[in-house]
Amino acid sequence: MLARAFAIVADLTTMKVATGDVAVLHQQAKKLCAARGLAASTEVFASATAKMSADQFSRSSGIRKEAFASVAQADAWLGAL
Predict the structure, then answer these.
(1) Which value, to the nearest 10 degrees, does the dihedral of the CA atoms of residues 56, 61, 64, 65 take?
(2) What pLDDT score was predicted for residue 11?
(3) Which end of the chain is more exposed for a tag (fewer CB within 10 A), N or C?
(4) Dihedral sign (CA 73, 59, 10, 45)
(5) Burial class (CB in 10 A: 0-12, 13-18, 19+), 44
(6) pLDDT, tens only, 35-66
(7) What are phi and psi of 78, to 5 degrees?
(8) Cα-atom radius of gyration of the chain, to the nearest Å?
(9) How far, rounded to the nearest angstrom, does the alpha carbon of residue 37 sit from its chain's CA centroid?
(10) Average pLDDT, whole number, for the chain?
(11) Is the pLDDT of residue 76 over 90?
C-alpha cells in the first residue's frame, strides 16, 4: 500500500498518444493514485502531443501536476514543495 502524501516523477518521454482502452487505464490509475494519497505529480514529456493527451487524464483525477522538459527540473519542483 502506498503512503499518504507521496509524490511521483513520471518520465513520459517515450509515451505515445493513448487511445481507447489504454486511455481508460491511464485515467483509472491516476484516480487510484489520488485516492491513495498522491499529493503531487510531475511529468516529463518530449512531445507536446503526448503532453496534451496526458493532461486529459490529470484533469479528471484532480491531481496537482506540473509538466517539465527534464527529470532534473521535475525533481527540483517537487523538492521545493
Answers:
(1) -30
(2) 93
(3) N
(4) negative
(5) buried
(6) 888 888 899 998 888 888 777 766 766 778 89
(7) -65, -40
(8) 12
(9) 14
(10) 83
(11) yes
Do residues 61 and 33 touch, judged by C-beta distance below 8 A?
yes
- Amino acid making up residue 16: K
Residue listed under C-alpha cell 503512503: 3
pLDDT at 67 over 70: yes
8 A C-beta contact, residue 17 and residue 48: no
Q: Please, which pLDDT band fits residue 3 given cuts at 50, 70 and 90? A: low
8 A C-beta contact, residue 15 and residue 56: no
Determine the Cα–Cα distance for residues 16 and 13; give it in Å rounded to an integer: 9
